[in-house]
Design goal:
Chain A: InterPro entries: Alt_ATP_synth_F0_Csu, ATP_synth_csu_bac/chlpt, ATP_synth_F0_csu, ATPase_proteolipid_c-like_dom, F/V-ATP_Csub_sf. The complex is a heterodimer of chains A (92) and B (248). By secondary structure, chain A is mainly alpha-helical. Chain A contains 3 helices and no strands. In chain B, helix 1 crosses helix 3, helix 3 packs antiparallel against helix 7 and helix 4 packs parallel to helix 7. The chains are: A mainly alpha (92), B mainly alpha (248). The interface between A and B is medium-sized, with 15 and 20 residues.
Chain lengths: 92, 248
């Protein structure tokens, strides 16, 4: 197994791990936020507009952690910087 | 697979390269500018207005209302900037239903440029509203120890803005591309529809977050002012339930 294969294998494994772990926490967080917002709307339907807007903004903020993980895994899969390094290293 | 529209070269010559990001950005800009110009050429204030003017009025009023809701006391000051951000991103994302089009927001260059606009607009609006000294003092709140963290926060939220929009739009295109490979026809269509929703929500989020950042830079810390015995700064707190009244 030369270094290219090794890099590919590790990249794929890490990409899967990244997106798997990185989606659990935001999912829990978003579920909490959504549940709380629904409860708040049920209590105070008059404030539904404000709550919904704040919910959207906070969901986007929470979701961005998952998006970062996604971007990292995409970089690992499609634009891995180490692949070119391995290609230029002689005997690599 | 092309992960970014930057690598999709449309035209090459005279030592220049025109990639899809720039071309589609121009297309969106032309569509928005020409469309808005064509509609606003024949504005009238009689009782019967054209449907197009009606549409624009609805859009502008809605954006203005949202800005006022976030807590800016003078929505008209921020309407051009925030409204443009929203309209551009929304148009760029929603045009994805046109075949052959790739949203320019799926490129990190575009979103980074938009986020940089926000990064610059925040101090510009803040200084214009509160004065240079008072704006800069805002970085040293609550204590001077927080100065590096405030500056770091300013930078990191700009990066977050860029990556969030880029990641969301790009994930839509990548997932559609992957699904076309493994489950053609039906599934990609559903994901594209979902992509339209995310695209629109992301445009909203981007504009609202920009507005929140601007509002936090322009709004004075009333509590801190009271604590030190100073009079609260000139900006009054935004009134919660007062409807927006058009300024003539």
């Amino acid at each position: 197994m030369d270094s290219f294969d090794l890099i590919a294998a590790v990249s794929i494994l890490t990409a899967g791990l990244t997106i798997a772990v990185g989606s659990i926490a935001p999912a829990l967080g978003e579920a909490r936020a959504a549940a709380q917002a629904l409860a708040s709307i049920a209590q105070q339907p008059d404030e539904a507009n404000t709550i919904t807007r704040t919910l959207f903004v906070s969901l986007a903020m929470i979701e961005s952690t998952a998006i970062y993980c996604f971007v990292v895994s995409m970089i690992l899969l499609f634009a891995n910087p180490f692949v070119e390094t391995a290609a230029t290293v002689p005997g690599g | 697979m092309n992960i970014s529209t930057d690598q999709w070269v449309i035209w090459q010559g005279w030592g220049l390269t025109l990639n899809a990001t720039i071309a589609f950005t121009w297309a969106v800009m032309a569509l928005l500018a020409v469309g808005a110009r064509a509609i606003t050429l024949r504005l009238d204030d009689s009782e019967t207005i054209s449907p197009w003017q009606n549409m624009l009025e609805v859009i502008v009023t809605a954006i203005r209302g949202q800005i006022a809701d976030v807590g800016a006391d003078r929505p008209d000051t921020y309407l051009p900037f925030v409204g443009t951000l929203f309209l551009f991103i929304a148009a760029a994302n929603l045009l994805a239903i046109v075949p052959g089009y790739a949203p320019p927001t799926a490129s990190l260059s575009t979103t980074a440029a938009l986020a940089l606009c926000v990064l610059i607009a925040v101090p510009v609006y803040g200084i214009r509203r509160r004065g240079l000294a008072r704006y800069l003092l805002g970085y040293a709140r609550p204590t001077l120890l927080m100065l590096p963290f405030n500056i770091l926060g300013e930078i990191s939220r700009t990066i977050a803005l860029a990556i969030r929009l880029y990641g969301n739009v790009m994930s839509g295109t990548v997932i559609a591309g992957v699904l076309i490979g493994i489950a053609p026809f039906f599934f990609p269509v559903v994901m594209q529809l979902l992509g339209l929703i995310t695209g629109f929500v992301q445009a909203y989020i981007f504009a609202i977050l920009a507005m929140v950042y601007i509002a936090s830079a322009t709004r004075a810390h009333v509590g801190a002012g009271d604590e030190n015995g100073r009079t609260p700064p000139s900006s009054p707190e935004p009134m919660e339930n007062e409807p927006w009244t058009p300024s003539t």
